[in-house]
Amino acid sequence: GEWRLCECSGWPDNSSWRNLVAWCWSREAEHCLIVVNLSDAPVQARVRLPRRGAAGARIDLKDVFSDSVCEREGSEMVEPGLFVELPSWGRHVFTFRAPPSPDIAPDPPP
Predict the structure, then answer these.
(1) Full DSSP string of 81-110
(2) How far is residue 82's CA from residue 98's CA, in Å, rounded to a whole number?
(3) Which SS3 state, helix, strand or coil, does residue 40 take?
(4) Residue-wise pLDDT tens digits, 6-23
(5) Shortest CA distance to 21 belongs to which of 31, 10, 35?
(6) Fewer beta carbons under 10 A from the terminal one: N or C of the chain?
(7) 9, 81 in Cβ contact below 8 A?
(8) Confidence (pTM)
(9) pLDDT tens-digit series, residues 29-44
């Protein structure tokens, strides 16, 4: 598989997103998204997937720690990004499947 850093962003009146780190791992249709709050305060942010293969698909995000599942549009996860809200020192580890998209080329190597 391949690890990639995910871009995080926020809003002009809320810079808490700067305390997040996010990565995604992909191998064909299997994916994992890890988001961690590195601060002692709650955070809200948008986390963008670095690959566009999820666009156009319905994605079931399964939280590894709670077994809860939330459904999202793949397009939202690419732009503007998945909305996350975490408590202090909180984390999400989501697994999901997204079909490979033949009309979208993979990202070039860093």
Answers:
(1) IEEEEE-TT-EEEEEEE----TTSPPPPP-
(2) 15
(3) coil
(4) 999 999 999 999 999 999
(5) 35
(6) C
(7) yes
(8) 0.83
(9) 889 999 999 999 999 9
